[in-house]
Amino acid sequence: MSHFPTATLNEVCDFQNGGTPSKAVERYFTGNIPWITGADLVGPIAQNARSFITEEAITSSATNKVPAGTVLLVTRTSVGKVAIAGTELCFSQDITALLPDSAKLDAGYLVHFLRTKEDHFSRYARGATIKGITRQVVADLVIPLPPLEEQRRIAAILDQAETLRTQRRTALALLDSLTQSLFLDMFG
User: Fold this and answer.
1) Distance from CA of residue 149 to its chain's centroid?
2) Sign of the C-alpha dihedral, residues 137, 140, 146, 151?
3) Are 70 and 126 in contact (CB under 8 A)?
4) Which helix (H) or strand (E) holds 161?
5) Residue 132 DSSP symbol
6) What whole-number distance in Å separates Cα of residue 167 and Cα of residue 128?
7) What is the pLDDT of residues 48-105, one digit of tens each?
8) SS (H, E, C) the chain
9) Is there a contact between 146 and 157 (Cβ–Cβ < 8 Å)?
10) What is the per-residue pLDDT for 2?
C-alpha cells in the first residue's frame, strides 16, 4: 500500500475523551444511556454496557456521548483494544473516541488499521500501576489512504476473515467437547 497517499490520524480524525460520572451520586447511574469502560469492549462492536447513566451524569462529568459507528480505542488499562460503537453511548476516560472524516477515512478500515498497531501502543504505554498512551501517540500514527471504495473493500475482506476465525474457534471448542463426551461414554 506504499503507493497510496498517507496522513496522520490527527489530520483525518477528530478525537473525544471520556470520563466517569461521580460514583458517589447514585442517581447518575439510574438512567438509560449506555456508559462503557474498556472492559465492555469484548468484540468488534461495542453494544453491551454494564452501566447506564442519566443526562445529568453527562452534564456533570467529563464523559461524552458519541453516535453509533464511532471508533473506540482503549488508551488506558487494556491499551489497544478497539471496537465500533454499535449504538449511541458514553464512555470512561480509559477510552478515546475517534471520529474519522468520512470523506477521507472509512471507520471499518480505521478499526483494522488500529488493530495492527497493538505492539506500537504497548511500546509507548507508560505508567507504574495503570498503563496508558497519550493522545499524541495515537494522533501521530500515519495511515495509508487508498480511495474510500478500496478502504471499504479491505475492511470487508478483513471482517470476513475475522468471522471465519471466530467460527473456526467455535468449531474447535465444540470438537473438544465432543471428544471428551465420547471418551466418557466409551470409558467413563
Assistant:
1) 22
2) positive
3) no
4) helix 148-187
5) B
6) 38
7) 999 999 999 999 999 999 999 999 999 998 899 999 999 999 999 999 999 999 999 9
8) CCCCCEEEHHHHEEEEECCCCCCCCHHHHCCCEEEECHHHCCCCEECCCCEEECHHHHHCCCCCEECCCCEEEECECCCCCEEEECCCEEECCCEEEEEECCCCCCHHHHHHHHHCCHHHHHHHCECCCCCECCHHHHHCCEEECCCHHHHHHHHHHHHHHHHHHHHHHHHHHHHHHHHHHHHHHHHC
9) no
10) 64
pLDDT tens track for 113-171: 999 998 999 899 998 888 899 999 999 999 999 999 999 998 888 878 776 666 677 76
Here the cell at position 17 is 475523551
120's grid cell: 506500537
Residue 174 confidence (pLDDT): 72
Residues 1-59 pLDDT 10s: 468 999 999 999 999 999 999 999 999 999 999 999 999 998 889 989 999 999 999 99
Q: How far apart are CA 123 and CA 113, in angstroms?
A: 17
Q: What is the mean pLDDT of the chain?
A: 90
CA neighbor of 132 nearest in space, from 97, 107, 96: 96
Q: What angle do the packed helices 148-187 and 107-115 form, to 10 degrees?
A: 60
Residue 1 confidence (pLDDT): 47
